[in-house]
């Protein structure tokens, strides 16, 4: 992509992810999670890049870059606008179905790009495994978490830390353990951002399609992808065109990173050479 479009400055990583239930954010299926830097974290943490420490615990290593300033400013402006007026996301979703009615229908066994009904948004206690089957019809309703009923099915937007890694998480207890390992109050799991954040300046936007537990299924994936895309569309309205050119091109940034990596390798080689023992023949 960069070879075809060398002027690219940044990107939006839009897709689906798994919500992490917690006291901080009441994340529901179809909601939107946006990465936002907090403390010393750039908005995304890599949960499977850890080292063992002396007391037997695990410690997260390294950190990932923050989104570019132009996107963070746009996010802040949009968030402030939503404090005053409702989001345009519900309107975008309605317009999508009006222009493309087929998208509301089930295709190839997958439900359409529409809200799947609050009765299909079921969060079970972490210790209760899936009872089997393609859905949760056989799962004991008494094992569901008690959550307040929402007044609207419109997606809500959550800002915070996203946990990313190469491990496919489909167990609630593992989910909770991995979150604790990061040392951050994460609100979403996904599997792509960790490999991209340090190479490509971007903002991560995820529509929530499951809870990273054994009850995971594909029912909400299309709608979650639609809500994330609708947020990205609204966000772009808050990115001032003149400021886009202020950041360096991604291709230039990658060359700078390669140069720095090369310098680090050279310094390491020089250090290794200087530490080699010298033998003298007297």
UniProtKB/TrEMBL annotation:
Coiled-coil region(s): 250-277
Keyword Metal-binding: no
The Nucleoside phosphorylase domain, residue ranges: 146-229
Keywords of the record: Coiled coil
Signal peptide boundaries: none
One GO biological process term: nucleoside metabolic process
SUPFAM superfamilies in the cross-refs: Purine and uridine phosphorylases
Gene Ontology molecular function: catalytic activity
Keyword Coiled coil carried by entry: yes
Entry protein name: Nucleoside phosphorylase domain-containing protein
Species in which this protein is naturally found: Arthrobotrys musiformis
């Amino acid at each position: 992509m960069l070879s075809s479009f060398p002027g690219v400055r940044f990107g939006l990583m839009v897709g689906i992810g798994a919500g992490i239930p917690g006291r901080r954010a009441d994340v529901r299926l179809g909601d939107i999670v946006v990465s936002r830097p907090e403390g010393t974290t750039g908005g995304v943490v890599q949960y499977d890049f850890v080292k063992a420490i002396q007391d037997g615990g695990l410690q997260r290593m390294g950190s990932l870059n923050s989104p570019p300033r132009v996107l963070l400013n746009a996010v802040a402006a949009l968030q402030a606008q939503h404090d005053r007026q409702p989001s345009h996301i519900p309107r975008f979703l309605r317009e999508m179905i009006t222009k493309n009615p087929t998208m509301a229908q089930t295709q190839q066994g997958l439900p359409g790009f529409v809200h799947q009904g609050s009765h299909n948004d079921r969060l079970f206690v972490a210790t209760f495994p899936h009872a089997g089957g393609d859905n949760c019809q056989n799962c004991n309703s008494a094992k569901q978490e008690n959550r307040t009923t929402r007044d609207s099915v419109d997606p809500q937007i959550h800002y915070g830390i996203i946990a990313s890694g190469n491990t496919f998480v489909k167990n609630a207890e593992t989910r909770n353990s991995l979150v604790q390992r990061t040392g951050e109050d994460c609100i979403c799991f996904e599997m792509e951002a960790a490999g991209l954040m340090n190479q490509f300046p971007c903002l991560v936007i995820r529509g929530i399609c499951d809870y990273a537990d054994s009850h995971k299924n594909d029912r909400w994936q299309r709608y979650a992808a639609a809500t994330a895309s609708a947020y990205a569309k609204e966000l772009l309205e808050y990115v001032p065109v003149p400021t886009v050119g202020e950041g360096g091109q991604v291709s230039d940034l990658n060359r700078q990173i390669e140069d720095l990596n090369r310098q680090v390798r050279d310094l390491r080689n020089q250090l290794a050479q200087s530490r080699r023992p010298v033998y003298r023949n007297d």
